[in-house]
């Protein structure tokens, strides 16, 4: 039997049988993504409490965020090839188990050095969850159903980012910061139990035999990056990450300094972003039928442009709330479209494709806030928001152009 046939057999074995099983898998993967993003965002509000409890400077406590983010970004490129070799659900399960153990450990230590080391470790294992989950969704849902599945998964993911700030602020206000890590770490148990249940129920899932990689790693990267379509998708997700997270990062600062809202209120308003992303995931299939899959990135980009425009032109809390709502829907439409096309770049090596996708997104997410933070510091919120609006409009027009090019015909 050829290696290609073995790969196809293994991919079928990893897909839960039946639509209900696939939906349960999707919710389990979504919970894992929620926890990873909540863990990355919820730490910022509790940094003063950590600094006070461990008797360190707040700037030193802030290094805990870098301790998590740097290995998270670097190890994106590691897990794709691993998943393509040993299986996606197995990779996710191992990464989630070690992430949960490390996160619980963060809530049990009493020294800064131990906490720092554990944050590095959790960042390493967190990197193996979201991109591989997206690759598993690519295996579990056909192309027609995949946009809605990815959008729902992304709603969980973005909910973790937005609600993580609220959770962190709430815990630091009423409890000890250690409870934050304990809650997030133990929150991984339902997903882990599902995977182990799936292992006992089927031959697939985490108990599947290792995948026989049909394409050597070097050849995989060569084939992916030599594709014009792949280069376009990775460029667009880099730009999307730079612009969206560049502008979104400073909305809480804008709301606090310009609108004089408390961080807790801002966190609650940011929850509208999560809600609208969930709403967008429910309507994405209808939108695709009306305007076409290739126009979804343009449509989502224009909605995000509108969201930032409302916040820019109307300095009022209700406008900020409306802006958050529009941003959630627009990001849901645009990002899920890019993810859907990324899952089809090289189906026999989806893990590697999605790891590259996450890597370019992460690079953009790191660069965007740095550049727009400089603009915010020296030009103020109005200049930063105005530049974000113009850049998002140009990004939308770029999406229109590239998805009508020969690479997508």
UniProtKB/TrEMBL annotation:
Instruction: Give the transmembrane ranges.
Output: 62-79, 91-110, 116-137, 149-171, 177-197, 232-255, 261-284, 296-314, 320-342, 354-376, 382-403
Show the CDD domains listed in the entry. Answer: MFS_NepI_like
Q: Does the keyword Transmembrane helix apply?
A: yes
List UniProt keywords, sorted A-Z. Answer: Cell membrane, Membrane, Transmembrane, Transmembrane helix, Transport
Where does it localize?
Answer: Cell membrane
- What membrane topology is annotated for this entry? Multi-pass membrane protein
Q: Give the main localization category.
A: membrane
* Entry-linked SUPFAM superfamilies: MFS general substrate transporter
Where would I find the Major facilitator superfamily (MFS) profile domain in this sequence?
Answer: 25-404
Per its record, how is this protein called by name? MFS family arabinose efflux permease
Q: Which organism is it from?
A: Ammoniphilus resinae
